[in-house]
Design brief:
Length: about 100
């Protein structure tokens, strides 16, 4: 299945992740379109939180997933997930080890 992101943008994101997490070399990469969900202005006012900025720009979640073996032979999942816009700018990142 083709990625919704431009291949050059996806490779730049992958390289950026590998600079920070070199252990993710050879990891499986998946890209998914992020659903936009936000709270309405009415709800935001009621609970006292700032209203989310409305944007038409799509966001994508790029996930690198890899399993490594611990010293005792137990497989450990390594996951790095970044949320990016169509130009590859990172909006959010998360790493789980």
């Amino acid at each position: 299945m083709a990625s919704p992101l431009n291949p050059e943008v996806l490779e730049a994101i992958r390289q950026q992740i590998l600079r920070e997490h070199p252990e993710m070399e050879g990891a499986e990469i998946t890209v998914s379109t992020q659903r936009t969900c936000g709270h309405s202005a009415e709800v935001a006012a009621k609970v006292g939180i700032p209203q989310a900025r409305a944007t038409d720009a799509p966001l994508y979640t790029v996930t690198l997933r890899k399993e490594v073996l611990a010293e005792d032979g137990v497989p450990l999942p390594l996951i790095v997930r970044v949320t990016v816009d169509a130009e590859g700018r990172v909006v959010k990142r998360h790493a789980a080890r």
